[in-house]
Amino acid sequence: MIATEKPTKMITYESAGVNIEAGEEVVRRIKPLVRKTFNPNVLTDIGGFGGLYDARFPGMKQPVLVSSTDGVGTKIKVAIDAGKFDSVGHDLVNHCTNDILVCGAKPIFFLDYFASGKLHVEHGVSVVEGFVSGCLENNCALIGGETAEMPGIYAGDDFDLAGTIIGVVERDAIVSRENVREGDVLIGLRSNGLHTNGYSLARKALVEVLGVGAKPKELNGETIGEALLKVHRSYLAPVLSLFEKFSPREDIHSLSHITGGGIVGNTSRVLSAGLGLDIDWNSWKRPAIFDLIQKVGNVPEESMRKALNLGIGLIIIADASKATDMIDHLHASGEEPVLMGKVVKR
Amino acid sequence: MIATEKPTKMITYESAGVNIEAGEEVVRRIKPLVRKTFNPNVLTDIGGFGGLYDARFPGMKQPVLVSSTDGVGTKIKVAIDAGKFDSVGHDLVNHCTNDILVCGAKPIFFLDYFASGKLHVEHGVSVVEGFVSGCLENNCALIGGETAEMPGIYAGDDFDLAGTIIGVVERDAIVSRENVREGDVLIGLRSNGLHTNGYSLARKALVEVLGVGAKPKELNGETIGEALLKVHRSYLAPVLSLFEKFSPREDIHSLSHITGGGIVGNTSRVLSAGLGLDIDWNSWKRPAIFDLIQKVGNVPEESMRKALNLGIGLIIIADASKATDMIDHLHASGEEPVLMGKVVKR
Known about the structure:
The structure is a homodimer of 346-residue chains. Chain A has 346 residues and is an alpha+beta fold.
């Protein structure tokens, strides 16, 4: 039988491409960073099989867990091209935070997945530093994670990330679509760039033409890599501040996080049946990076709107009678809100 | 400025490699499958920004959430080679279930991440079918997920998966290492193969030599691909059955899920300081696939023990006085438990 007659040269765990020492070194170096995100609700230490979190939620009557999993899409390829490993983890925590925030939930903990072909200690530590920054910004504990070494799947310095966030909301404070009605206004909060969507388009239209290091005059001294790698904004602070002053049901009828699918795709998902959007596309100025993508790649406006947030990262669908108060409140929190349209009958 | 002088041919969202229709088709087809995993605690429907789960846990005094994130490592490469996409998702749910089960927790919900270079509808649906099978087996809801299309990261039919499980345990039923003492016995529950660890070694030592389609006589008619792709066992049923009859503190002193690092690596993590393991490596017969890997790849025993579970997937560290009762109980549940060693002073 062939299987036994001709043994190959000796194969060990290490010669098969798995570097246990690198994995242990990453864990050693990230431990003190990760511990900075802990709070008294975290009942565990790093390195156990599972992350433990106290689920009593004192003061809440009907706590509801809200969870979301995501990746950063091909923004990761821009990070790899630019040799910048410390921001994509932060992007991912902020992205996930916004995804549960639009249900009304505050994040409590996060878990990360980081996979590469060959574990490079410095890259691994940088990636986790990004997760830690994101968790500190959004006040959630980095309670677990997995670092996978997968030779044969990821080439060169390529890697991928996934993250899962868990948050909690009082059941009667869940923001849902059921209160949206004709005449509600759309108040947009500004993005600082592409956030984490549309990078396949941006790479094809811009990066493959000019490269990440180019400094086109439209970007005022920034490179394309810098403009594309700006960290996805978290809207936790301005939205929580709104929740303190306005009712998440009567005043705030719905919230929309602008990700893949763009402004219309994402906001249509949070309308009741029979309603549509009337958007004034000229009511805000798009950040320069969007015009550059459109110009260099000769991208039709329809694709721009489908793939990109175009400068608006989160939309509040508000009762029209509260619009002025809400906009004033957002200005006072340092935002530059945009009254960008309204809900109409379809 | 170069950026504006020479527009390239028109780039659209679709020509950049993102196929929105394929993504929508996958969602349409998986919806009825995913819904089968729901229960009255799931307060959401598929397609919202976040998955909602009732966190009141009636009857529990101090509920603690236990969570874990993982991937299936390079087992995914074997699945790709064999063109089999429906089992790795099931592997992942079972793996995550075991990871929180060893803390004493029962799974409540799961979220998946599935990334490929170009979304192939049939592959995507198969992968989610695997997640659904795993969630049904472990009685947890598939509450969220992300399907990412990442041209430039994943080549050909390559893809990657990550999954996150959330479970719950009563605080005073958490299984922890603090009760382990000298003289405790190790009771092993059998694995059905490599589960999800050691595939870089197995591929190098076996797959690259013989191929996934080979049928070496040692495997009794099975192909190498079939033997390597057996679904990671979930130990939820036998361990919950133990919890009903034996105290998760006084009788069951610790539990160890045998993943990367092998029997010694994983079980050492759940011992108190100053204690070690005395394992009788001849107390069970290894499944044929392990002997084949060792023989064909000429793999030293030390690497075998570090990388592979060698036929034992979960270890119960039990009070010696309860060992016989526990083994009898496990036999009655259909297990073939192995009394494989004991805890010693180091």
